Amino acid sequence: MSVDDLFKPLALLHGPAMRNRFMLAPLTNQQSELDGFASEFDQDWIRQVAQGGYGLITTCATTVEAGGIAFARQLGIHRDEHLDGLTEMASSIRAGGGLSAVQLHHAGHRARPELGGIPSPASSHTLPGFKALTTEEVERIRDSFIAAAKRAEKAGFDGITIHGAFGWILSEFMSPFLNDRTDKYGGSVENRARLTIEVMQGIRRACGPDFQIGWRLSVERYGLRLEELREITAFILDRELIDYLDLALWDSAQIVQDGQYRGQSMLKVFTSIPRRGVRVGVAGKIMTAQRCAELLDQGCDFVLIARAGILQRDFPLQVKANPFYESVATPVPAQYLRSGGLSERFITHMRGWPSFVIPTSR
Q1: Rounded alpha-carbon distances, angstroms, from residue 17 to 20, 185, 249, 347
Q2: Closest Cα to residue 10, out of 356, 281, 264, 335?
């Protein structure tokens, strides 16, 4: 396909279509207020990317419970009092012409006590001194995801994305390494996927018919098994429980190193699944216009822009103007990000990413 194909609309199962094939990936930025309220820096960031030409813009990981916090200055959606700031963010995205989604997040066993988090492991062996969640506590967290989705809808977002990646709680429950439960949320693949599926089904029931549901999935680390994740994904896509799947790969070109799918591209393992009306996209080192077009040829319906979107807030517009556009090489000086409009809080966060900001730069 050509770069022009990236600018064709993409219909979703529910609600309005994406105006093009660019989705802004959910980007942790640690620039909210300490109590989860959207800050002036959050609002400025959203206003910038809202004018950047994206088809859909996703917020950073946003806490569904106060105890599920993973990062200092993490955005929250666990209280009705958060709605004013979230409503402003949704309005900015709408004004720019894109669709909007809140990424719903709970850190699970990775919650940070020093930030007020309550580590919530699936298994008692994961963290010394912390017992596994009871069945009732798991159900409470499930309901917190659903309540957060209702808040997102009330704030004017077109949908939500469920964070099921990187060992956070939904990913944790999928892992046979981190989940040795004997209740209905542990044991078989079906039981370990139950929490994720109940969240999806609960949100679909609780929210309106046009509300969109995305799901972010990673396939590495934390004891996850690729073959199991493919099976779970096939079930979810066949029943159209979501509108779109966001494959969070560290590298969209990576090759499976072992197991049943050894030698195949990780992307092909999932794009080869019958998807019915569900759309599939990928994130991972997508830095050029030509790479975006290649990924459509490789079976993606859309691409998720992450680092390239931090470096250049209007990445889709740059691609539209130049089919051979390439992001600047990293690491970059902090002043480069600053002059582009990134806040000092965001820049401080990016200093923690390997090879993104020149360490000694001001």
Answers
A1: 8, 35, 25, 33
A2: 281
CATH superfamily, region 3-327 = Aldolase class I (3.20.20.70)
pLDDT attached to residue 360: 80
Going by pLDDT thresholds of 50, 70 and 90, the confidence category of residue 361 is: low
| Mean pLDDT over each residue of the chain, to the nearest integer | 96
**Residue 167 · residue 222 · CB < 8 Å:** yes
pLDDT tens digits, one per residue of 217-260: 999 888 899 999 999 999 999 999 999 999 999 899 999 998 89
Contact 102, 148 (CB under 8 A): yes
What are the CA-CA distances from residue 109 to residues 69, 87, 307 (Å)?
10, 30, 27
User: CB neighbours (10 Å) of residue 90?
Assistant: 25
Q: Residues of 162-173 as b/e, b for ≥16 C-beta within 10 angstroms?
A: bbbbbbbbbbbb
| Residues paired with residue 162 on neighbouring β-strands, in sequence order | 104, 215
Give tens-digit pLDDT for 311-351.
999 999 999 999 999 999 999 999 999 999 999 999 999 99
Distances (CA, A) of 15 to 12, 18, 98, 193, 211: 7, 10, 13, 26, 6
List the structure tokens of 82: 């958060």
**Residue range(s) of every CATH 3.20.20.70 domain in the chain:** 3-327
Predicted TM-score (pTM) of this structure: 0.96
Contact of 138 with 185, CB cutoff 8 Å: yes
Per the listing, tokens 């509108």 go with 243
Long-range CB pairs of 128-137 (<8 Å, 24+ gap) are 132/181, 135/183, 135/184, 135/185
Indicate left, alpha or beta for 223 from its phi (over 0: left) and psi (-120 to 50: alpha): left
Predicted confidence (pLDDT) per residue in 265-287, tens digit: 999 999 999 999 999 999 999 99
Closest of 140, 290, 150 to residue 208, by C-alpha = 150
The beta strands (E) that lie in 92-236 are given as 99-105, 159-164, 212-217
Cα 33 to Cα 39, 41, 82, 109, distances in angstroms: 6, 9, 11, 23
Query: At a CB cut-off of 8 Å and minimum separation 6, what does 175 contact?
Result: 122, 167, 192, 222, 223, 224, 225
Q: Backbone phi, then psi, for 311, in 5-degree steps?
A: -70, -35
